[in-house]
Amino acid sequence: MYFSKISATGSCAPDKIVTNDDLSKIVDTNDEWIVSRSGIKRRHFSSGENASDLATGAAEEIIKRSGIDPLDIELIIVATVSADYTTPSTACLVQANIGAANAVAFDVGAACAGFMFGLSVADKYIKCGVYKNAIIIGTEVLSKYLDFNDRGTCVLFGDGAAGVLLERTEEQEGILCEEIGSDGFKAMALTKGFSPAGNVFNNVSCEADRSMKMDGKAIFDFATRSVPVSVKKLLEKSGRFTDEIDFVIPHQANSRIVEIISRKLKMPLDKFYMNMDEYGNTSSASIPLALNEMVEKGIIKKGSLCIFTGFGAGLTWGSMLVKF
Amino acid sequence: MFERIREIIAEQTGKDVEEITMETNVKTDLEADSLDLFQIINDIEDEFDVKIENVEGIETVGDVVKIVEEGKKD
Hints:
Largest sheet of chain A: 5 strands, mixed
Distance between the termini of chain B: 16 Å
Number of domains of chain B: 1
CATH architecture of the largest domain in chain A: 3-Layer(aba) Sandwich
Structural class of chain A: alpha/beta
Number of helices of chain A: 9
CATH class of the largest domain in chain A: Alpha Beta
Largest interface: A-B, 11 and 8 residues
CATH architecture of chain B: Orthogonal Bundle
Order of helices and strands of chain B: HHH
Radius of gyration of chain B: 11 Å
Oligomer: heterodimer
Helix content of chain B: 40-55%
CATH topology of chain B: Non-ribosomal Peptide Synthetase Peptidyl Carrier Protein, Chain A
Number of helices of chain B: 3
Shape of chain A: globular
Structural class of chain B: mainly alpha
Number of domains of chain A: 2
Strand content of chain A: 25-35%
Shape of chain B: globular
């Protein structure tokens, strides 16, 4: 039986940093208001780089750190909700940019849980013996969608990309257990971008709506109620207890939501890694951005037992138990 | 019921229980933002086994009590 382990990580964020003070010059807000409500101090905004450029940067870092020959990469999965093009996929653009001529490349879309879904798919390909390795990247340029007249949302999001190299192993390590799910019945609770079915033979408007719409209460309920349930199910399935877990890497939406999740799971907050102060909410990229930072800082070591947990539009969620 | 709701609100907002009356405005008097309010509503929903919709319409603690009482009747 095969397992898939994370053998390298990498990230790429735009150089341009936008502070809360910078935002307060263009919208009616201030640093204290944003920090106390979200834990966000800065975010990186694109200076023109698109989702595929950031994903390529992350992939190049993964290749450099792992030493893998791009021609040996077998699968590339990119998770994004802010792709350069509707088609081709961002994964295909990355494939060409890094010269991974032998890889199969495609995107997955599961919003802020996208990286978890990508990891889940890649894990299955590896576990059933189809591929020996895969690069999975979450990448977002959310700044291109932000409405800078809406102070409630434009302060929350940022741009960035990060990912992992997943490799086949016969040791019992890497992705040990997962719990993923979807609730399409609540799909309208969080939407971004709508393309109406207009054509010259009907009277439907052809005007697309790029904006983001959120039912705050529904999403809050989902994040603070469903995520702890997902993590508890994961622990039950794997026969583990909370005190065995070294770190939880949650989707970096909002520090207060993470605090509530920690309280509901009765797990100390210092086990929950947070870096939304630096990046804001980067949707698909947030979990790998946090993971990569932990690896770079030496926080995650060989043998560390971690839970990744993502939740987002769809509604979608996914939790994984990962041993390094 | 009011006593328990007071306790939940006090716990979430860090205010003294005595400060909270039926007339207390949740947004201005308690300085509660939307996430505080969502958490208060969540805790109340769990405590009283009711579903509270129309959170935007809530102004005072009395409004919360009324919604819970009506919810219990259904």
